[in-house]
């Protein structure tokens, strides 16, 4: 069993190095591909298939898809096609192992590959080193299979599957459960598939038992995406649940028609190799699992997406509750409601800043509130995309709103920077003055006095710019004459620059909102 565990470990290490190396080589291209070629159902499916084959990891494709959906770069409906394609692409590992893994001496082949790859990583130019990592990963992958094969030859003496008769419903269910647990523990369906193929090749399990394990492994592989979706957006949660439901529903159907699927698998295997090769048959069974699921799901992607959207509705952002899509046909009304939304965002940021300065610490809900503003900015952008300005006056107001929105986006980024607490600790007097200003600003917000806010922030921004120039030179001069340490001087400079950016973007956002209101006069 030690050899089996060691083989799994080497395989996982190889798979990780192979996947990371391939992502480093083609990662940006794959991201662009995912973003550009997921417009239709079949293009999404094909994208997921090719990306998974190239990266040799459906988990990597799924996590990338969850991230893209969460960021709003692709729609939830598009992600379903990618997930289905990734499921089909994940079966490529089984094909590689069954066609090559048990036909040649893996150790004799893998060791030279590992050696060449390792030397490339140490002595090759920087732009070539990443290819060495891929070679090492590929070599370790096959070395792990070799150790698995050796270990499985003796494993059946320790762990017996003979009592698990596949004609029994309980035994079949137990095998599926074992497959789920295997994949969750290994965090890679490829590794559990490799272990299953090695066990089948060595005779530790029979073909039908291996097929039931594969069904469980297809369910278990969804665990990583489910864990990754925790704390993510609703869209990301929907994508992860899609992956789970797709595999569970397909697993139920395959289990119901298990005997018929085996007959089809055997016929395909014989037509390819001339006789029934069990390891190749298992790879084909794995592919059929995903292909049948795709055939069943693809026609119902849109209804399925609508069902999940109702099951997991978006939580309404309180800041954007007034952005009614029906208003976009009336540009003046759409811009007015956008203006009010931006005012609400600035009020929320003002309250956060006041508390930050007053308590001199980041409150526990700080990042959550920033996320709300950031989400509101994105929702407002999409809303404004649908507004078609007609007259010159409306167009100018539209431009003011977009400029203000851009400054608010930059302001949120400033709020997230690490210098926020340094500024409070190193520039207490300045921050106290800023607190007084923002307290007045908060009061003006309640009275809808945007012009007063703009004047107040303009004065503070100009004073802050002068203060920043003076203090920056002063801190650096002190470090030169050894009156202060360089790292302290640099920290003070960075934090004064942070305050300057903060006040500037506050002022420019308010200036654009004041310009918007000025057009009303």
Key terms:
elongated; mainly alpha; 22 helices; about 525 residues
Describe it:
There is one protein chain. The protein has helices at residues 2-36, 41-55, 58-70, 76-89, 92-101, 106-123, 126-158, 169-186, 189-202, 207-220, 223-229, 234-256, 258-273, 278-297, 301-311, 331-359, 366-385, 392-416, 419-426, 428-446, 450-480, 486-518. The chain is elongated, with a radius of gyration of 30 Å. Helix 1 packs antiparallel against helix 2 (41-55), helix 2 (41-55) packs across helix 3 and helix 5 (92-101) runs antiparallel to helix 14. The chain starts with a helix and ends with a helix. The longest helix is centred in the first third of the chain and has 35 residues, at 2-36. The model has no long low-confidence stretch (mean pLDDT 81). It is built from 22 helices and no strands. 82% of the residues lie in helices and 0% in strands. It has 521 residues and is mainly α.
């Amino acid at each position: 069993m030690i050899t089996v565990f060691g083989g799994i470990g080497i395989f996982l290490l190889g798979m990780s190095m192979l996947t990371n190396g391939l992502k480093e080589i083609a990662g940006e291209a794959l991201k662009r591909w995912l973003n550009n070629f997921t417009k239709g159902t079949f293009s999404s499916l094909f994208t997921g298939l090719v990306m998974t084959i190239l990266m040799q990891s459906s988990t990597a494709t799924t996590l990338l898809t969850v991230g893209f959906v969460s960021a709003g770069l692709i729609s939830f409906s598009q992600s379903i096609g990618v997930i289905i394609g990734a499921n089909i692409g994940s079966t490529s590992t089984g094909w590689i192992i069954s066609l090559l893994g048990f036909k040649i001496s893996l150790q004799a082949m893998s060791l030279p590959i590992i050696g060449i790859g390792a030397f490339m990583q140490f002595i090759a130019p920087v732009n070539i080193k990443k290819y060495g990592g891929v070679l090492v990963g590929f070599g370790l992958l096959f070395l792990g299979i070799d150790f698995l094969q050796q270990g499985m030859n003796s494993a059946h003496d320790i762990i017996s599957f003979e009592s698990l008769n596949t004609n029994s419903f309980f035994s079949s269910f137990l095998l599926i459960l074992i497959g789920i647990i295997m994949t969750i523990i290994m965090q890679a369906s490829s590794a559990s598939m490799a272990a299953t193929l090695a066990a089948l090749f060595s005779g530790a399990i029979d073909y039908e038992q291996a097929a039931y394990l594969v069904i469980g492994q297809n369910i278990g592989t969804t665990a990583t995406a489910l864990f990754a979706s925790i704390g993510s957006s609703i869209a990301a949660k929907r994508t992860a649940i899609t992956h789970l439901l797709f595999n569970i529903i397909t697993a139920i159907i395959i289990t119901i028609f298990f005997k018929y699927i085996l007959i089809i698998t055997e016929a395909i295997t014989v037509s390819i190799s001339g006789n029934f090769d069990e390891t190749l048959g298992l790879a084909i069974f794995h592919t059929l699992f995903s292909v049948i699921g795709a055939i069943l799901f693809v026609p119902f992607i849109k209804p399925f997406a609508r069902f999940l959207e109702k099951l997991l509705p978006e939580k309404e952002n309180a800041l954007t509750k007034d952005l009614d899509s029906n208003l976009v046909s009336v540009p003046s009304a759409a811009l007015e409601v956008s203006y009010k939304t931006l005012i609400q965002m600035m009020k929320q940021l003002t309250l956060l800043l006041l508390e930050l300065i007053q308590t001199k610490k980041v409150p526990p809900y700080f990042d959550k509130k920033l996320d709300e503003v950031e989400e509101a900015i994105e929702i407002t952008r999409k809303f404004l995309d649908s507004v078609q300005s007609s007259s010159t006056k409306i167009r100018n107001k539209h431009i003011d709103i977009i400029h203000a929105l851009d400054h608010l986006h930059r302001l949120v980024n400033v709020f997230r920077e690490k210098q926020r607490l340094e500024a409070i600790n190193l520039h207490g007097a300045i921050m106290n003055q800023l607190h007084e200003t923002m307290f007045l600003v908060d009061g003006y917000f309640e009275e809808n006095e945007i012009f007063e806010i703009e004047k107040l922030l303009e004065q503070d921004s100009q004073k802050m710019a002068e203060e920043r120039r003076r203090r920056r030179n002063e801190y650096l001069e002190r470090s030169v004459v050894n009156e202060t340490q360089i790292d302290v001087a640099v920290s003070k400079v960075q934090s004064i620059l942070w305050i300057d950016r903060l006040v500037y973007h506050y002022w420019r956002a308010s200036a654009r909102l004041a310009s918007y209101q000025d057009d009303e006069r």
